[in-house]
Amino acid sequence: MISKKMNKLVENSSIIRAMFEEGKRLSYIYGEENVFDFSLGNPNVQPPENIKKTIIDILSEESPNLVHGYMNNSGYEDVRNNIAKYINKNNELKLTANNIIMTCGAAGGLNIILKSLLNPDDEVITFAPFFGEYANYVDNFYGKLVIVKSQAETFQPDIQALEEGINEKTKAIIINSPNNPTGVVYSEKSIKDIAKVLEKKEREYGTSIFLISDEPYREIVYDDIEVPFILKMYKNSFIGYSYSKSLSLPGERIGYIAVNSEMDNFEDIIASLNVANRILGFVNAPSLFQRVVGRTLGEEVDVNIYKKNRDLLYNHLINLGFQCIKPEGAFYLFPKTLIEDDKKFAQIAKKYNILLVPGTAFGWPGYCRIAYCIGYDKIEKSLEAFTKLAEECRSI
Amino acid sequence: MISKKMNKLVENSSIIRAMFEEGKRLSYIYGEENVFDFSLGNPNVQPPENIKKTIIDILSEESPNLVHGYMNNSGYEDVRNNIAKYINKNNELKLTANNIIMTCGAAGGLNIILKSLLNPDDEVITFAPFFGEYANYVDNFYGKLVIVKSQAETFQPDIQALEEGINEKTKAIIINSPNNPTGVVYSEKSIKDIAKVLEKKEREYGTSIFLISDEPYREIVYDDIEVPFILKMYKNSFIGYSYSKSLSLPGERIGYIAVNSEMDNFEDIIASLNVANRILGFVNAPSLFQRVVGRTLGEEVDVNIYKKNRDLLYNHLINLGFQCIKPEGAFYLFPKTLIEDDKKFAQIAKKYNILLVPGTAFGWPGYCRIAYCIGYDKIEKSLEAFTKLAEECRSI
Fold this sequence. Notes:
Chain A contains 13 helices and twelve strands. Chain A has helices at residues 4-30, 50-61, 64-67, 77-91, 105-117, 133-140, 159-165, 188-205, 266-279, 287-295, 303-319, 342-351, 376-394; strands spanning 36-37, 100-103, 123-128, 144-149, 170-176, 210-214, 237-242, 255-259, 332-333, 354-355, 357-358, 368-371. Chains A, B: This is Aminotransferase. Chains A, B: InterPro entries: Aminotransferase_I/II_large, NHTrfase_class1_PyrdxlP-BS, PyrdxlP-dep_Trfase, PyrdxlP-dep_Trfase_major, PyrdxlP-dep_Trfase_small.
């Protein structure tokens, strides 16, 4: 009855739902405080204090028909202008409102980019481990997601694998840094190497190959790490940004796309993003929150809360003998599972009331994702459960 | 460079943009107060006073991680429950939260319904004159929009045309009442006749044919007109609702889908809508405004403002000899143009600083759409311009 594409997805979603229901079942039996749900990337840190005040200021100072009304499908010009200036200040660029399209989060942004670029059977490359939604976003427009591997020791992109993955049908590459699920930040060298390969292949095939950088975690970084800014490093580049994590507003669906001024066919691409925003049904990014982010540029959640969580859990896992890269950003750990079968590992973890996601879901079996965007006290309490989990795994 | 589908749309959008720029040019030359822009369906009536208060209440009373956080892709359960109860009270139904999916306006709702239903080359029928976006929404999923005519005298659906338009590939019918562009409200008889034909054709072909009712104007009705409630009249029916017009919040992208409990494969359809909301990039309807509409059910803008506009302009046009159905809802007049060529008529209107949309844009040449959701004083001032327009047309 439902479409063939959706039929498969609904089957998968019922598995995820079953996991979610299992969490609720455990909470019901053992009490919510004794269940350690590391399965969801739902930020627990509060939005900055100023968000509430800014909303109230806007409602008092601006006309309701402006604040809640239609505007250009790309978003309010003054907001886009503010964002462009903010980016310029931090990156020595010369963007204007014309480079910015306000979107319903990064998910909305990625979809309108792909709608604008893809003809059926066009290929889009991403590096595993990867955020599983990319497969669905590409499939929405009848494209094909091609998955190439990262370097196993560092989770930096494997440049040779990228080069081998590109052919004349390759329309775009999606990268995600800071990365979900690994927490790794792509180095400047990695981005430059990607750019070099793409430029070479563009010349070889006489095509344009677009680099799409999905950056909802840009601000969630630790220890003074710098996230390289791709608009300075590759001509045909887009940034898909979201305020979901930097302002802890994931439900509000607010973000933007920044488009490189030097991009091939810049004017057509901008016009297409505009129309795609409209016809996919977004119409425009939610209006009040466009105005909110336009007034709160540079504000951020307290990243130290996540850092404390990371350090506590990371150190404990290392002491238990887990192999894990120390994440420089996002709020995920991606350790090797103590037994080879990651799905079985997740099953065993459940016995200790620990919920986590097998690496298989990210195209990288033998690992698991632990989302540490939960309360510090919860993590403290979970350490013993992880110890027991490690003991059981060692005894298998 | 951009995809083939988008290439065509970008060409069209540049024509619309040219019209928009023309309006700005006229405003620049003659002063904004002397340009009569009837081209956009952008509500000018203020949101109810209580919206602002409700937002502030929510920010004070509820936790920010709840108000701005992720929830189920279908939306907050308490909000969906409130909406279901509100619908039940007015329509003697037994909906629950399970029947309601919160969406990014009606545009988002229609897209996730079509994503859930359509395989490539499936057909969707609508009645001309029709909201042009339906063609794009259906095309997003490689479906084919089949346009059948309305009854020319009443703009009620032409049931025979519908019956002739249905074949074994027909997956859905989209109706829109109160209608954009005609302002007509479909009668109970019309809906019952549609239902009868669909039931007959379902039996004939052994298929399910879904009725999708796009209802952003449900509350914008005059003279105690009742808009029939399709969930009571046809089993395989969806309502796509939006608060854009009833609360004058079009920029906030907030609405819902109501799904008939008796629908074939109800559980799969609901699961699919849920997943489609996620993978098309909406993820969920904007969270704060979900909570706002959940607290303000039954609130409405002052429809009398639109009614006064309608009466003033309608009476004047009739006096000038225009043929026009008196609209019972929405905020559009759809008169026959005084010369046959509606595009030329719109060109001539521009000489008198009147901006309106040729009926051709709605698949109904020889007519034009006049959006009267602008200030009453602006309409008063425009009457003389309409008189001069009529004089020039009569002299051709």
